Amino acid sequence: MEPAGGDGGGRRRRRRWPWVLGGLVALGLIGLAVVSVVLLVVLGSTGGVAGGAAPVVYEEEYVSGEGSNKVAVIPVQGAIASADSSLGGAQPTVTPEGLADALAQAADDTGVRAVVLEVNSPGGGVTASDEMHQSIVDFKKNTEKPVVVSMGDTAASGGYYISTAADEIVANETTLTGSLGVIFQLNNFEELADKYGYKQVVIKSGEFKDIGNAFRQITPEEREIFQSLVDESYAEFVDVISSGRGIPEDRVREIADGRIYSGQRAKKLGLVDSFGGLDEASAEARELANAGQATVVRYIQAPTFTDTLLSGLSPQPTEAERLVEESGLTLEPKPYYLYLPGA
Predict the structure, then answer these.
(1) What are the residues whose beta carbons fall under 8 Å from the beta carbon of 94, sequence distance 6 or more?
(2) Which residues are catalytic?
(3) FRET pair for 287, CA 20 to 30 Å: which of 196, 202, 210, 300?
(4) What are phi and psi of 186, to 5 degrees?
(5) pLDDT along the chain (343 residues), means of 10
(6) Residues with Cβ < 8 Å from 315, sequence gap 6 or more?
């Protein structure tokens, strides 16, 4: 009896395995299907591998006024930098990519008669600032729609650089602006490395291949190279101020010594046109566009499902990286149009 019972139980147990394996296979197929759907959504939102990216659309938030004509307010808030290519969907308008998309939307909308750039930025990367400046110049040339800048608490360095492309600049008397110039920061960990016995061996193909090495002193020749890069970017800054504001180049070089100015002082120097806030800037934009009555709307970036999904999948920054980011410091060696107190 025992062997028979044992064999029967064993047979019953063995019969269950096909069902278990079948269930696992089914669950695996379901999981693959879910992953495939998610990937299709992501690729569809970001343009996929072969397809073009879908046009970016910013939502319109009502600000004031009424009428069929519109004044589009585009916020430029925070440090200027290139977009994070790992994220899909709409990019922040403080990036060259995001500003270009917002201006394209304003250009295509026949109801938009003028644009106000709401600038509250200490500046940022030289290349990113220049790309944003060029986007504004191109927008004005291609659409003949006026652009007015409304400065907030801070519109310094790169924040001022992009503002020079506008038809008018409106600031508060207490706005911090100026900081007209270029900064290139290099770190030197030589003493720290010596203290802890850190040694670095460099194999290079040319004399200047490791220029800017943080573990040794900079040489006079290397300093000259970096200075030439700064001088080139500074000359570009002087040029956009001179051409955009109609100030002689020699005069620009006198006032563009890196110092910051209050809005009140900036107006006396010809760096801004008038005092006021967003209401005054919007009124100036309406007047320049002969728009009469107009509704003022602000372009805002609404996160999509894809944005949320991708941001959740992105690696989280370390505590040290967060502290560096929050303090406004950067370890990336490149020139900046940036107002960074204490730098």
Answers:
(1) 75, 76, 77, 78, 79, 80, 81, 121, 124
(2) 157, 209
(3) 300
(4) -125, 140
(5) 49 50 54 48 40 63 95 96 71 92 96 98 95 98 98 97 98 97 91 91 93 93 96 97 97 97 98 98 97 95 63 62 52 77 62
(6) none
